[in-house]
């Protein structure tokens, strides 16, 4: 499949996700970086989104809880080019019942070539990048052309 470009706007659409054992860590990270995150559109899976919104005052669009379909909702938003960045504090030491959904979410983020942070350090690097505060062109699959060629 060919690639095309997509422009990530200055104000990003950022998904915030955390496994249960990492929610406190994501909360502390979000509180520390609330001013950086405030101008952006924030999304989160249910429990995480409600916790972050309540504790930080940030406006966050909460989806379903991850195990109830929230990971899949985020994946669909990524495929629809409505999420620009994924910050997912996951627990590599404990298997979750929805691990296949988590793997699918990480796969779709990779397919659509969005920046992904999986811990505090990588999230800090994303926020500290000069690219965070500007428009950025990224390469993505040219699915529309692929469909036109397959159907002609």
From TrEMBL:
Instruction: List the catalytic activities from the record.
Output: dihydroxyacetone phosphate = methylglyoxal + phosphate
Q: Where does substrate bind?
A: 19, 23, 45-48, 65-66, 98
Record-annotated active site: 71
Gene3D superfamilies annotated for this entry? Methylglyoxal synthase-like domain
Identify the EC number(s). 4.2.3.3
Keywords (A to Z) from UniProt: Lyase
MGS-like domain location: 6-152
Task: Report the protein's function.
Answer: Catalyzes the formation of methylglyoxal from dihydroxyacetone phosphate.
Cited HAMAP family: Methylglyoxal_synth
Please state what the protein is called: Methylglyoxal synthase
Q: Which organism is this entry from?
A: Otariodibacter oris
**Underlying gene:** mgsA
């Amino acid at each position: 499949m060919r690639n095309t470009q997509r422009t990530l706007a200055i104000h990003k659409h950022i998904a915030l996700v955390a496994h249960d054992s990492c929610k406190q860590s994501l909360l502390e990270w979000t509180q520390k970086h609330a001013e950086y995150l405030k101008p952006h559109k924030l999304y989160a899976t249910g429990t995480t989104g409600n916790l972050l919104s309540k504790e930080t005052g940030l406006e966050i669009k909460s989806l379903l809880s991850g195990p109830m379909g929230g990971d899949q909702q985020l994946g669909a938003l990524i495929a629809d080019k409505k999420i620009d960045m994924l910050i997912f504090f996951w627990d590599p030491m404990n298997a979750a019942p929805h691990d296949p959904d988590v793997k699918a979410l990480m796969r779709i983020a990779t397919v659509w070539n969005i920046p992904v942070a999986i811990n505090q350090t990588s999230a800090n690097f994303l926020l500290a990048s000069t690219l965070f505060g500007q428009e950025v062109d990224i390469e993505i699959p040219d699915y529309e052309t692929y469909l036109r060629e397959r159907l002609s």
